[in-house]
Amino acid sequence: MAATAVAVPRKLDEESEEDKELQSELKLLVDKITGKDQLLIPSALEMMKYLIRTSTTSMTSVPKPLKYLAPFYDELKKAHEKMSNDAVKKSLADIISLLAMGTAGGEEAKKNRDCLRYCLMGTMKNIGDWGHEYIRQLEKEIVQQWNFNCEKTTRQILPLIKDIMIFNTTHHAEIQGNKPTDYIKFSKPSRIVIGCDLLMEIDLLNELPQYMSKNNYPRICMYLHSCSKYVDDIERIKIMKLVKDQYIQFGEYAKALITAMQSDDGDLINKIFSTCTDKIVLYQLAFICARQNYMIDLDPNNAHYDAIMGILSNSHLSSYFATLARELDVLEPKTPEDVYKTWLEPVPPRLTILGENMNSARQNLASSFVNGFVNAGFGSDKLLTVDGGNKWIYRNKDHGMLSATASLGLLHLWDVDGGLTPIDKYLYSTDDFIKSGALLALGIVNCRVRNECDPALALLGDYVASDNETLQIGAILGIALAYAGSHRQDVVDLLLPLVGATKSMEILGLACLALGFVSLGKFDNDIPSTIFNRIIETNNTDALKSAFMRLAGLGLSLCYFGARDAIEVPNETMNVMEEPFKTNIQTTLLMCAYAGTGDVLIIQELLRIVGEKVEVAKKEKTKESNDGSNSSKGDKKDKKERRGSFTRIKAPRRVDWDYASGQALATLAVAVVAVGEDIGVEMIHRIFGQVFRYGEPTVRRAVSLAMALASVSNPQLGVVDVLTKYSHDADEDVAVNSIFGLGVVGAGTNNARVAATLRQLAVFHNKNPSELFMVRLAQGLVHMGKGTLTFDPMHTDRMLVDSVALAGLLTVMVALLEPQTLILGQMHYLVYMLAATIQPRWLLTLDEDLNPVPVTVRVGQAVDIVGKAGTPKTIAGIHTHTTPVLLATAERAELATDQYEIVSPTLDGICVLRKIDQPA
What we know:
Number of helices: 43
Keywords: Proteasome, Repeat
GO biological process, one term: proteasome-mediated ubiquitin-dependent protein catabolic process
Protein name: 26S proteasome non-ATPase regulatory subunit 2
Family: Belongs to the proteasome subunit S2 family.
Helix content: 40-55%
Strand content: 5-15%
InterPro entries: 26S_Psome_Rpn1 (IPR016643), ARM-like (IPR011989), ARM-type_fold (IPR016024), Proteasome/cyclosome_rpt (IPR002015), RPN1_C (IPR041433), RPN1_N (IPR040892)
């Protein structure tokens, strides 16, 4: 048998014949350059440049010519100093500059910035030919040099910066490796991104527009827009203005509108509507504004005025939602039993009388909430809209009747024309609680919908100043929901007198809250000063310790929603208040002013408040026992237990300050500020674990709510597991809030894992009425709208924060900081403030006549492509569907055919499509 030749692998330190030949060639060229024969130098330099340019290498190693020339670095520098021919001297400076990029010259070359220094001495022509890494090194040294330059050197660098920016904006990708897998493994950001970073570092961002073209402006604007979250306010305003101007210049009206909304530029929004003439684009702009609850000052002479105003009024919402329900075949009403699936719960059978199951009043109340949320927007159910539906209302008592009647508003959500009639009959009830519930239901029906007849104000206005406090509750909250974010001055004038006139703390808290909802984000009116005056009047009194004052503070803060630095004046005003109320209000102001901004500095400030040691005021010493002896703590506890077991009567609880309440609000505020910013949310989830472990009891109650706020309608496995663990906590308030957090995290998703967890909790807390009530409520939220609705305040590919939706969530979350006093007490009707948060989680496609049109789309997990090189995929894990479809929080859609084109920057919510004329 013939012997088989075996290839022996070459050692790493051994060099091939080609390498040795290259070394000798380069050594010869160096000798010619440093020699005395001036005629040989130009050709030697050109040959050396050619060898460097044509060298091939992997992405993880230094090019061999640079490696072999490194020992001659100092020799070439000396030769450069002695040269007299300017052209040859510049050519050699180019090579020295390139060598300084690598290891040649050592740390001394890096310190002296030789790469930049010799580049400025060189030809400065076609610098891009030397490769991406050379450009990157130049950019790094330009940034280092910029702040220490004299005016002369700065003028020299400017032409170089121009050449670098031209190179950056014409190259969309980094150098790839020898194999396709090399690029995937060692992928780098786009050159455009690096160019933007350079101009931001040297404060020349205003020069960027001259390098922008139709090919690169989408990448540049997307990157700058993402950077605006991580800079100070002055820089942010500058970046947003540049992005808006570029979108307008290139006719990207939808993207310009979104950017204008983020920076609250009302003048530009109105200008966009007056400038754009394309009917389809105008319709799409109107749908974006309608989703954001933003009203436009549109010129009545506009050719499409009626259609646009119809879209802005949200009058289409009910009919389009009915279309979605028919397509998904979910019109059949569900009962609370269908949601609870009690047949899966191993509990004793309930008492039956005359063939009917008898529940406690609290469980009937829970079923009213569940029935409303599960059938929200469908207009029918099996409890209230059937014959004899009022019997269900009478199975509740007092405030429970109010909430049961108000659930009619959820059933007819957004349907102003069809929903008023079934509610109207309850306005003539002799029971004040039922009548108040009907008033609240009217407000819920009108939530986010603008009607020319203005039925909400006409029906509710007369009861706002009523002498009957029960009727006032329904009317005030109804108006808050019906006119949330409307900034209507006539509504403000109706509510404002209550702040100064009412003696009831409950009405005061609700009136301030309603004013905050109506005047959301608008503080240049009489509302802040009026609320301030009333709060200052209650200073140093027990009224200030009431839970309702926390609602009043939230109402005040909602006026400053998104105001950022404009809260300096109210912050200073609150310094006259005593602690901890001062910290409560100032933290709430900070939370609302920076809600959804992702501002890292504000999050750090809030975490500082959470981490501070609570300073508790000295309490009065208790009287010593009759015998005057100092007993141990154990003895005192035993005496207390014996006394309690003997009398069996609880002493009235003395209202006292909760000095950790400011930290609880700060914990909640961390989540509110970080919402929508993925990196920030991921970090705070880690921090919350430590806060829960070491925080005060009040702060621990807030942690589960904050975790839920950071993952609304987004049941991530880690968050669900943590909240499940917290829901078994020994502290009843912590368990209650964690259960509600599970409902918020799974809201409208029909998530099987969350639903199974809640069924287990129903068994675990079977004998705890408060926890069981909250489990039932959470089950209703998870199955809200039979899986078609969401609480997520982020929309339009998570670029915009819906302030009305976030305000609704915040109201319930703040109320749950004292659950036994408010939500689990008689103010459970505050849960209906979530009606402002409810939105369909759909993708509905319309033609140019605003009629639903089925289109094939690809749906998958959204992928962040900001700053990515090449043309990366925007979605992963693709599934193909036909519209209308339901989209989860982290999902994105793309058109699967080329029959239509979109005019919206994203494919979610309601999208108007333009049909593409197909060739014959």
